[in-house]
Amino acid sequence: MPWRLFIFILLTTACSDKTELIGHWHCEFLDGGNAIHTIDFLENEVAVINLNNVHGAYRGRWNSNKQTLKGYGECGVFNLTYKLQGDSLLIKRPELGDTFVAKKCKQNCCDPKLEFFQSEQLDINLPHIEQENDNVLAFQAGDRFHSYIFLGRPTSIGYESCSLSPHLRLGDKLSTLQDIPLWLEQERIQHHEKIRPRLQCVLFFDSLTSYRVTFDILRVLKAVKIKSVLMAGRIRTSSKDTMSVGLISFHMDQLENLDSMNYRNLFQAQLKE
Q1: Paired strand residues for 54
Q2: What is the domain partition of the chain in residue ranges?
Q3: Mean pLDDT over residues 208-237, rounded?
Q4: d(C-alpha 207, C-alpha 267), whole Å
Q5: Which of 67, 70, 129, 254 is in the most buried spot, having the most CB atoms within 10 Å?
Q6: Which tens digits make up the pLDDT trace of 15-29?
Q7: Residue 64 in contact with residue 47, Cβ under 8 Å?
């Protein structure tokens, strides 16, 4: 084969592979952990990991010639090699020794709520925010001044059949009410003493969470000197491909005056104040 033809075929194949990579991919783990849920390959060889996740996205660079993706993360968690196999990517993390497969999302295959809460493995239907409201603050994923409390029904294998009741998740662990004080202290000591007063708890609770469960969690937070929390709701005007979240403030001095309402009704009452 003439060398010019060989180079032409090589370049054509590389360009084709590069074009095939560009887009939004869903990851399916074969073994190892699940810190990576989606990967977006952009045209300028920038990659975005977990684009729509509640904890924020990670950016990196991908190289079509070396078939690598170098991200920013501890212990090589986002340093990847990949190989295009048909409509799938076989991805490896050499430093962690695990392997997973990614499938390209081509059309109407994304669930924004699932991608947003995928790290938590909980099914959480936030109460809705129907229209613009001066009481609503914009949510910024990965805000370092926010500590997240999640409440919803588990979706991961091994938990679905345990209970129909909602599960509490503090950070990355399934927890109980008794775990809240220690968890809050651990959250605080990660920050400089001058920053700690600015830290706020954000509640991502399923809208049907009962009054008793909501009240018990708020009561524990008040007992450890939390003066207010931020309650998360889903903005109804979100596009079908994104999860847009707003926050409203709830002050603990209102706790004793609560009527027996579920979380959705409590949230809607706060919107009107």
Answers
A1: none
A2: 3-105, 112-272
A3: 92
A4: 8
A5: 129
A6: 456 778 899 999 887
A7: no
Measure the CA–CA gap between 33 and 40, rounded to whole angstroms. Answer: 19
H-type alpha helices, the chain: 3-21, 112-116, 180-188, 211-223, 263-272
Convert the pLDDT of each residue in 88-97 to its tens digit.
Answer: 899 888 877 7
Contact status, residue 54 vs residue 139, Cβ threshold 8 Å: no
b/e map 173-191, b = 16+ CB within 10 Å? ebbeeeebeebbeebeeee
Please check whether residue 37 is in contact with residue 26, taking contact to mean a CB–CB distance below 8 angstroms. Answer: yes
User: What's at 226, amino acid-wise?
Assistant: I
The answer to whether 38 and 25 are in contact (CB under 8 A) is: yes
Where residue 120 falls among pLDDT bands split at 50, 70, 90?
confident
Tell me the C-alpha distance between 55 and 231, whole Å. 16
Q: Which amino acid is at 105?
A: C
Q: How far apart are the first and last CA of the chain?
A: 77
In words, the CATH class of domain 3-105 is mainly beta
Q: Are 232 and 251 in contact (CB under 8 A)?
A: no
